[in-house]
Design a protein that fits this description.
Blueprint (H helix, E strand, L loop, with lengths): L3 H14 L2 H6 L9 H23 L1 H7 L1 H14 L14 H6 L10 H16 L8 H5 L10 E4 L4 E5 L3 H7 L17 E8 L2 E6 L2 H11 L4 H11 L5 H10 L3 E5 L2 H6 L3
Antiparallel strand pairs: 1-5, 2-3, 3-4
Helix pairs in contact: 1-3, 3-5, 4-5, 4-7, 10-11
């Protein structure tokens, strides 16, 4: 007799993938309705729920391609990337990568990056909170410790880069947008920061230096290394101004000081 896990896997294979062998192995007693027809009822409900969940997370992607295209892509995505968690509202982290290889969307080269932006917005909205940045503790550190500081991004902070003007694309597809709806893909790319602050969710364009600095922090680099990356990306980069800005907008939530500097901190 199959275990509960084996039965669950069989149901998933029959329902999501349409696996005829898995369906036959379930031994469904269907009465006047065939086993395939019974599974099809559940399949319709499951795929419908996934479509709704993905449409909620990726409304601009859906608007760009239309409902029929989006639903077909969502169904194909579900088959290729079955959910591994119980919360369907946390589903969709691989959609951008899926769309990048999705043949029917090949002509829409910007679409995966729009999906990345929408996923970043979704994740920023549900990320954990963080205590306010401890400016007093930072000020108490000896100056020689500054180069070795490692800054920690807020849990909601998401960095997105694209060769396309994805923020403009996203903006013109908002319900409250006013103005010309045309987007010229030759406008240039975007480096974006998505972060949740005191006033709610915010999407900010980053200059090359800021983008390099925050990417360095996200990778765990020290202030000295991240600053060098920023100056390499933008010769006129102003480090103090960037630090002030991103502490104020809560993109930077904390710092980790070298152990030696902690021991030398005034008491």
């Amino acid at each position: 007799m199959p275990s509960l896990v084996e039965i669950q896997r069989g149901v998933a294979a029959a329902m999501i993938s349409g696996d005829a062998d898995a369906l036959a192995g379930l031994g469904i007693v269907a009465g006047t309705i065939s086993p395939a027809a019974r599974i099809a009822i559940y399949r319709s409900n499951v795929f419908g729920n996934y479509r709704k969940a993905l449409a909620t997370t990726f409304p601009v992607v859906r608007q760009l391609v239309g409902a029929a295209f989006f639903n077909a892509a969502a169904d194909d995505y579900v088959r290729a990337h079955p959910s591994t968690r119980g919360d369907v509202n946390r589903y969709g982290d691989d959609l951008a990568r899926f769309l990048g290889a999705y043949e029917p969307a090949r002509a829409l080269a910007y679409l995966p990056d729009v999906a990345r932006l929408e996923w970043a917005i979704d994740q920023a909205a549900i990320a954990a909170d963080a205590p306010p940045f401890d400016l007093a503790a930072l000020a108490a550190l000896p100056e020689k410790a500054h180069a070795g500081l490692r800054f920690v991004l807020h849990p909601s902070a998401q960095l997105i880069e694209s060769h396309y003007p994805i923020l403009h694309i996203w903006q013109v597809n908002q319900a409250d947008f006013e103005g010309p709806a045309e987007v010229d893909l030759r406008e240039g790319g975007d480096s974006l920061l998505v972060v949740r602050g005191e006033c709610g969710l915010d999407i900010q364009r980053l200059e090359p230096g800021e983008a390099a600095l925050l990417k360095g922090f996200a990778a765990g680099e020290t202030l000295a290394v991240a600053a060098d990356l920023a100056i390499e990306a933008e010769a006129t980069f102003d480090l103090p101004a960037a630090l002030r800005r991103h502490v104020a907008n809560q993109a930077l939530a904390a710092f980790v000081a070298p152990e030696s500097s902690i021991e030398e901190r005034p008491r």
